[in-house]
Amino acid sequence: MTDVATTAAYFHYAILLGIVERSAVSSWLDNIIASSPAPPAPAVLEAALATDDAALVTALGHLEPTADYGSVKRALFSAAAEAVRKAPATAAVLCERLYLIATLHALPVTELELHLLVGISDELHLASSGTHGSVQSALNEFVGFLVSAGQPEQRATGA
């Protein structure tokens, strides 16, 4: 992600998902401020001066109106897959948060993807409670879904 709006949108949702540290966002904002030949936009300064995650998420929201949400979705899903690989115990919460973000925000998620998130969330809960299925199988399905959803869309080419 190269433009400020798209990166801001990614960080906005990554903070809500809990898959990025605030320090990464602060470093990115500091770099924008330091490398800008002109005074940075007020929203950049607002984000850089945010004192908590809620203020930071709000400020990042002011930077993202022109974001490429397809790129944001792919980056978020790829980062979420890596987060689940590193900390499998977070999968159920991460799945629920992804569903909420997808339904309440501007991510271009298909109806099928929403249904899959609900189904995988149920599988994760049932497996972790010992009611049905294996946790590893549910984790594998979730990571596979995230990896697939994090790929660029394939466009059909006409002859």
Q: Order of SSEs, N→C?
A: HHHHHHHH
Oligomer: single chain
Shape: elongated
Portion of residues in helices? 55-70%
SS element count, helices: 8
Content of β-strand: under 5%
Supply the helix-strand structural class. Answer: mainly alpha
Task: Write a brief caption for the model.
Helices cover 70% and strands 0% of the residues. The chain is mostly helical and 159 residues long. It is elongated and about 60 Å long.
Describe the structure.
- The protein folds into 2 domains: 4-63, no CATH class; 69-149, no CATH class.
- 70% of the residues lie in helices and 0% in strands.
- It has helices spanning 4-17, 22-35, 42-48, 53-63, 69-86, 91-104, 111-128, 135-149.
- It is elongated.
- The mean pLDDT is 91.
